[in-house]
Specification:
about 20% strand; single chain; FAD/NAD(P)-binding domain; 5-stranded parallel beta sheet; Fumarate Reductase Iron-sulfur Protein, Chain B, domain 2
């Protein structure tokens, strides 16, 4: 560790504030006022924009009549992860973007905040409202205790099936636990939500169990009536340039996971000058949390323009409000080191070609850096599915191929979440798990 990478850059009180809930919940009065702004549209466009199809006007109407339990049930019936989705879902490009209030006032109804109001109330005021049906005697294996896997498990448990979830890590929750900025899901909310979900019963979770190491797909198909794969994305995409093995160069997802799990954030070292390469939410989370840990200069560098970044404009604005600088139209050429430690990155300036892709201009510049976080995307690792070197399942652009009911090419095997092609969002993963559970239930009923 060099003198420019050190822990404890921020006083304890300030550090605690930096990683507290970034967006405090609505007060009861604020929720009533906000709910009154909803038009309760027939064929509401916000419902169409929600991947899980929550009946948004119905749950907001119940908040307006102070029926918070009924409101939460409306939400959770469609999205059992309604609490975390209320916090991390990009509502600004989904339901709130479709809100008809936007056209009149340029300000949508705060659907996400209202959803949080209802789900938080239910979690604080009683046990799970869901009950299991009579036991069916059917057994289903779920691989992965992330939103897709647990959404599938919960729905199947409601139908009376027995579910065993195999999770490679020490905790459940998937990206909610390991991959989301700490200030978005503060106060151990990810674990509290999982406990709420598992309270239905009928779901056993085995930790430290990994597909391809502790068991294989053939064994699961032999021992269970159906299998759901919620494997997520197991690999980080490399930059493919020299210097990636230098000290101080890390995958952003690993940094975020460490930050989420460390007991004392004051003990986590951070550089004075941090550079994050990428343009998605992972890049935003890594950069913003670096600043909140005490990094003095944090820069996100992206190869194309702001409009092409996968992070929403709201996320980009949030990073800049936290003192993060975003530089566009630059691609990394090589990482520079001294004594095995990264000291900077050489970039080439880029410009859009005829197809809108980034092409180098030939002009270069160097950014000094004590730490570099790579956030250029994650990839699905099919190795656990291989039999004699060949994937046991059909793949689609490097991920598991599924049909509309999330069935894979193997009978009795379903998949969902980030391991299948589509949009990598928590709310989409939840919907995948729900759709697969319904399909499995229909198949098991014959």
């Amino acid at each position: 560790m060099t003198a420019d990478i050190a822990p404890g850059r921020v006083p304890p009180a300030e550090l605690a504030a930096n990683f507290a809930d970034a967006h405090p919940p609505l007060s009861p009065h604020e929720a009533l006022v906000e709910a009154s702004r909803c038009y309760y549209c027939y064929d509401a466009p916000c419902v169409e924009a929600c991947p899980t199809g929550i009946d948004i006007p119905a749950f907001i109407r119940k908040i307006g009549s102070n029926n918070l339990r009924g409101s939460a049930l409306k939400i959770l019936e469609a999205n059992i992860f309604g609490g975390s989705c209320a916090r991390v879902c990009p509502t600004e490009i989904l339901c709130e973007a479709a809100c008809v209030r936007t056209a009149e006032e340029d300000r949508p109804v705060r659907i996400g905040a209202l959803q949080r109001r209802a789900t938080d109330w239910l979690m604080e005021h009683g046990p799970s409202p869901f009950a299991r049906e009579a036991a069916t005697g059917k057994r289903i294996a779920v691989v992965g205790a992330g939103p897709a896997g647990l959404a599938c498990a919960h729905r199947l448990a409601r139908y009376g099936h027995a579910v065993t979830v195999f999770e490679a890590r020490a905790k459940p929750g998937g990206l909610n636990e390991y991959g989301i900025a700490a200030y978005k899901l503060a106060d151990d909310f990810a674990q509290r939500e999982v406990e709420f979900i598992l309270a239905i019963g009928g779901v056993a979770v085995e930790y430290g169990k990994s597909l391809g190491r502790d068991f294989n797909l053939a064994e699961l198909r032999r021992d269970y009536d159906a299998v759901f794969l919620g494997l997520g994305l197991g690999g980080a995409r490399p930059l493919g340039i020299t210097g990636e093995t230098l000290a101080g160069v890390r995958d952003a997802v690993d940094f975020i996971a460490e930050l989420r799990q460390v007991e004392d954030k004051a003990r986590l070292p951070i550089g004075r000058r941090v550079v994050v390469i990428g343009g998605g939410n992972t890049a935003i989370d890594a950069a913003t949390q670096s600043r909140r840990l005490g990094a003095e200069e944090v820069t996100i560098v992206y190869r194309r323009g702001a409009a092409e970044m996968s992070a929403t404009h709201k996320e980009q604005d949030w990073a800049q409000m936290n003192g993060v600088k975003i530089r566009h139209w630059a691609a990394p050429l090589r990482l520079l080191g001294e004594g095995g430690q990264v000291v900077g990155i050489e970039f080439t300036r880029t410009r859009p070609d005829r197809n809108g892709r980034a092409e180098p201009t030939g002009e270069t510049f160097v950014l000094p850096a004590d730490m570099v976080f790579k956030a250029v995307g994650q990839v699905f690792v099919p190795d656990p599915l291989r039999v004699d070197g060949v994937p046991a399942l059909e793949l689609d652009n490097g991920r598991i191929a599924v049909d509309a009911e999330r069935r894979t090419s193997l009978p009795g095997v379903y998949a969902g979440g980030d391991c299948v092609a589509g949009v990598d969002l928590t709310v989409v993963a939840v919907q995948d798990g729900k759709i697969a559970a319904e399909a499995i239930h229909r198949a098991l009923r014959g």
